[in-house]
Amino acid sequence: MAPRELLDRTWRELRSSRRLRLALLAFAAIAAVEGGLRWSDRLVTRERQLQELRGELRGLRAQSRDEAELQQELERLTGARRALDAQLWRVPSDAIGQARLKDWLGDVLKKAGAANPILKLAEIKPLAGADKTVVEELRAVHELRAVISFGFTPDALEKVLAAIEDGGQIALVEALNVTRRERRAEMTVRVLARIAPRGGEPPSQHIERAAE
Question: φ and ψ at 183, to 5 degrees?
Fold first, then answer.
């Protein structure tokens, strides 16, 4: 049968049969509903994927901000450490460290005009003590101590304290005692120093290069 004749026959049957028309409409409605449901499912899937992508994007943005803040904090801490490290004395041995401490404090007492000065060196101690878990950089830092005493005058005491505070190194007065009856002032001074053999690179430089 020719296609045109087939179409004409089908059309006549549809016009003559109400049941057939209803069946075709039902099939068309089912197909439309199914298509709509599939389209709705695709929209839901796309929306879910879009929400996931948006969440990942927000996470990446937050991570980027966190990394930037962490980098800034790291740079700030690195700068602070370098500033502190620059104030540390660097000596190749304990003995030379004690000799430097003795010369420095002797010069401080002399410039302050302290009368009858007495200087006694104390035992050198590692800053980290016996703790082996600290980083190598801290294990190389030692505490140099000395006890100095001199004839007390307000002017001499003020000058000695100012010289220790403004000497450019990490130093502090641990103890201070003034005896009015004997007219003497006595103080314990502590200075931090890095003990590193000559020609050896400070551990901090190894750390910084490793970080880079």
Answer: 55, 50
Rg (CA), the chain: 43
For the stretch 118-130, pLDDT in tens is 999 998 888 776 5
Pairing label, strands 141-151, 171-179: unpaired
Q: Which two tokens stand for residue 113?
A: 């005009």
What secondary structure does DSSP assign to 108-119, as a single string? HHHHTT-EEEEE
How far apart, in Å, are the Cα atoms of 160 and each of 35, 117, 151? 93, 12, 12
pLDDT beyond 80 at 173: yes
* Structure-model confidence comparison of residues 179 and 58, the more confident one: 179
Contact by Cβ (8 Å): 190, 172: yes
Residue type, 35: G
Using the CB atoms, write b or e for 173-210: b if 16+ within 10 Å: eeeeeeeeeeebbbbbbbbbbbbbeeeeebbbeeeeee
132 or 105, greater pLDDT = 105
pTM: 0.56
Rounded (to 5) percent helix, strand, coil in the chain: 60, 20, 20
